[in-house]
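Annex B. Sample input.
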Amino acid sequence: DRLICTPGGAQGSVAALDKKTGDVIWRTKDLPDPASYSAAISAEIGGKRQLVVLTGASLAGINPEDGTVMWRADRAGKSFVVATPIVADNQIFVTSADVGCQLFTVTESGGSFTAAESYKSLKLKNDWGGAIKVGDHVYGDNGATFVAIDFKSGEMSTRARMIGECGVCYADGHLYLQNPDGVVALVEAKPDAITEKGRFTQPEAAGKKVYAVPTVSNGRLYLRALDTLVAYDIKKS
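Annex B, continued. Sample output.
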C-alpha cells in the first residue's frame, strides 16, 4: 500500500507515500541528499528486506517500514546519476558518468549493517541508459563503446562499438539497445564477444530524442520516444 519515491532534499531524500491518499508515511530525515534519476529498488540483504537507493551523494539501504537508514556509503556523482543499482546477494554495483563504476559489499553483524567499497573503475562510465547483469558480467555503454565487465572484479572482458550511448534491456539471450537518435540494435552478448545481430531506426523517433529504456514483455518490444509509445511483435513465427 506504499509508493516509494526519491524527491531528495533537506526533508529527506527518500519518501514513502500512501498510494491511495498520497499522504506521507515517512521520509529519510537522516539522509538529506540531493535527488538523482536513479530508481529505488527492493532487495533482501543479510536477511533483511531493504530499499537500495543511489542518490546524488551516496548509496544507502533504507528500512521500508519506517525510513531509517540501515547503512550508507559516500558516492557522489559529478554530473547525472541515472542508472539503477544492481544487487547480487550482498554486493551492489553502481555506475554513472564521470565517476565510473563501483562495487560495494554490505555486511551484517549483530543486526547492524556496514557498506565498504570493493573496487572502483572507469571502465564503465554509464551516462543515462543503465547497465544490466547477465551471468557473472555487467553490460552497458561506456559512451562510444559497449562493454562487458566482470561483476566481482571490475575487469573488462570485452568491448565493441555499437550505437553509442543507449538504453539496454535483456530477454531470451539477447540485449536490446536504443540510442537517443532512435537506432535500435539486437545484440548477442557474451563475456568474450559482443556481436550485433541487426538494427533499425524507429520511425516514430524522427526529430525527437529517446531517453527511455527498451522493454520486452510477452513477446513484444516496447519503445518510447517522448510522447509516442510503440510495440513490436518479436515472437518467433
